[in-house]
Structure formats: structure tokens, C-alpha cells
Amino acid sequence: MRFTPAALGAALILATVSTASLGAPPAEPIKTGSIALAEAGHAALVAGRRDEANDLYVSALAVDPRNAAAYVALGQIAEAENLSGSAIRYYRDALALAPDNRDAIAGEGSALAEKGAIERARESLAKLKKLCRTGCPQVAALERAIAAGPRPETVAVKPAGDEQKN
């Protein structure tokens, strides 16, 4: 008896909170300006103008930071420029918005493999295989990246006679 008012109050709160999400409006679509800039970025990338594409994708994100495809594209550009750490960050940003984005999962796994985090890349592969039951190109690409292993580090070598004098 002593707990009846508290139990009723808790039940009322629980019922109110659990039904509030049922009436929530659907997610707002990505702004058309962001989509247009991302499409222009894709065209620039296909034409081989990587710097222009990068700028267009960044602009697409400035218009609407929910554009997961722009993050994936920036990750791909970063990987092409051997910037695995930046690529991983972009892919994770995309995955925060779209956890089942196959391109982001494969890209992150590939960048992790290039950095030597093979076990984490295999985790990405397992997640991707779970999503792609019939097989998809991202699985094969990630398997190749894991098989290739880490990218050898490049070391800058000073030319002879380029020593600093004190």
C-alpha cells in the first residue's frame, strides 16, 4: 500500500516516455544543396580533380553535416592521399550517421589494415559479411586490403650535402 502512489507515478512516467518516440517525426532528409555539392564533388573526383572534389565535399558537409556519403567520399580521398588516420576519422563520422553504411565499414577496415590494425580490420570484415549475406564488392575489397597488410612507412631522406651548419 505504501508504494502504490510511487508505483503509479513511475508507471505513468514510463508510459509517457516510451510512447513519446512513437509520435516523433521521421528524420529530416539531407538538404538538397548538400546533395548537389556532393554530386559535383563526385564529378570532380571522377575527372581526376581531387583537391576540387575535397573542397566540394567539405562544402557539402558545411551545408548539411548529416551527409554520410560526403564523409565516405572524404575518407576515400584521404586514403588515396595515404592519410589513413584522417580516412578512419571520416569513415567513423559516416558510421556515426549511418551505422550500416557498407562503404564506410569497408573503408574504415581498409584504412585500419593499412595502418596495421589487422584485427580491427577483421572485425569490420565480419560486420560487413553480416550485412552482405549474398556477397558484395565491399567484402572482396576489404579482404584484399587485409591480405595486403600494413602499408610500408615512407621515410624522408635528406639529400647528401644538405646538412645544417651551426
Overall 3D geometry?
A: globular
Would you give the CATH topology? Serine Threonine Protein Phosphatase 5, Tetratricopeptide repeat
Terminal-residue CA separation: 88 Å
CATH architecture: Alpha Horseshoe
Number of strands: 0
> How many DSSP H or I helices?
8
CATH homology superfamily name: Tetratricopeptide repeat domain
The biggest beta sheet is recorded as: none
Structural class by SSE content:
mainly alpha
What percentage of residues falls in helices of 4 or more residues?
A: 55-70%
The CATH class label is: Mainly Alpha
The protein's oligomeric status is: single chain
Q: How much strand?
A: under 5%
Low-confidence parts: 5-24
Question: Would you list the SSEs in sequence order as H and E?
Answer: HHHHHHHH
Gyration radius over CA = 23 Å
Could you please describe the fold and organization of this structure?
The structure is a single chain. The protein is mostly helical and 166 residues long. It has a single domain (31-148), classed as Tetratricopeptide repeat domain (Serine Threonine Protein Phosphatase 5, Tetratricopeptide repeat, Alpha Horseshoe). It has helices at residues 4-20, 32-46, 50-63, 68-80, 84-97, 102-115, 118-131, 137-148. It is globular, with a radius of gyration of 23 Å. Mean pLDDT is 83; it is low at 5-24.
